[in-house]
Design brief:
Blueprint: H1 24-34, H2 37-44, H3 46-61, E1 66-70, H4 72-83, H5 85-89, E2 96-100, H6 118-127, E3 135-139, H7 146-158, E4 161-166, E5 179-182, H8 197-216, H9 233-247, H10 251-260, H11 265-274, H12 278-287, H13 292-298
Helix pairs in contact: 2-8, 3-8, 4-8, 6-7, 9-10, 9-11, 10-11, 11-12
């Protein structure tokens, strides 16, 4: 068994040797200062993050899916990011999926012992129909989680895209992946507790990856999340504001457009800006990979 005490994520942080002796003010200041490190770590990994995004986007354009795989905190972060894609970008739930060792029960109940059972990863992926068209992003802060390592190896074996996301250097751990993202956040204030800086940096990277991919898939216009589906009062308010700001549509007409389009802000915008009926707007989007900007260009509408 590998000596994990030498891993960057398991080393002792000299700045917190007397953590239990500090008062609340000093503790908060220490944690605040330490939380500047994730941003630096993410910035250093930008080339690999770009490579991952471009590779995933290429797969998703051809009908592939994105899977996050992890155990413990890493798995929970993956499931969280995946679960936020449908309400934010109106994606089908199968497009981005989070898999955690132990299943959804492990989101609230400790099941970290399962991270050593690599065969479970293969079973979990097979149950989802994971295939060569898909992408696997394995998340393992310390780089030694067998559940993730076996999943990555399986992805390589069947010809899928494999991406690793870890917080240890290549000198410490080698990971079997096509794209290798290393976010070196350093020793935690609470030794070995990677839900802290490592978890923060991981969440930052996942935010980047999923959001930028959705932008490239045409689910954003300007900085507006136009591919949302109005399903409650908050989203209705947001949808009407987008229609007003982008399409100069008043509230009354906006509500009518959303009714006609079954809550689709993107369709409502295209109908309004290009003066199209529902079927014409849908056909135009279908011909332009669901991209509103491309559809408007084809309709010779001046972009805002």
């Amino acid at each position: 068994m590998q000596n994990r005490g030498n891993l960057l994520t398991e080393k002792s942080n000299n700045r917190s040797n007397k953590l239990d002796l500090l008062n609340t003010t000093d503790l908060v200041q220490l944690f605040s200062n330490e939380d500047l490190e994730p941003q630096k770590a993410v910035e250093a990994a930008i080339p690999q993050i770009i490579e991952a995004i471009e590779s995933i986007f290429s797969k998703l354009k051809d009908g592939g899916r994105l899977f996050y795989l992890g155990a413990g905190t890493s798995g929970r972060l993956g499931v969280l990011d995946a679960s936020e894609c449908p309400p934010t970008f109106c994606t089908p739930p199968e497009l981005v999926q989070g898999i955690i060792a132990g299943g959804y029960k492990a989101l609230t109940t400790s099941s970290e012992g399962l991270e050593d059972q690599g065969v479970l990863a293969i079973n979990d992926l097979e149950q989802r129909g994971f295939n060569s068209k898909d992408c696997l992003l394995g998340i393992t802060a310390g780089g030694t989680t067998q559940y993730v390592l076996e999943g990555l190896s399986y992805a390589n074996k069947i010809g899928a895209l494999s991406i690793s996301l870890s917080c240890v250097s290549t000198n410490e751990v080698s990971l079997p992946s096509n794209v290798d993202i290393r976010i070196l956040t350093g020793p935690e204030l609470l030794t070995g507790s990677t839900r802290l800086k490592a978890g923060t940096a991981t969440k930052m990277v996942l935010n980047m990856i999923s959001t930028i991919i959705m932008i490239k898939l045409g689910k954003v216009y300007g900085n507006k999340m136009i591919d949302l589906s109005v399903s409650n009062n908050k989203l209705l308010d947001r949808g009407l504001r987008i229609l007003r700001e982008v399409g100069n549509v008043d509230s009354t007409y906006g509500k009518e457009l959303l009714r006609i389009t079954n809550g689709s802000v993107k369709l409502a915008l295209l109908m309004s800006l290009a003066n199209l009926d529902l079927q014409q707007a849908q056909d135009l989007l279908d011909k332009n990979q669901q991209q509103l900007r491309k559809s408007l260009e084809k309709a010779e509408i001046e972009l805002k």
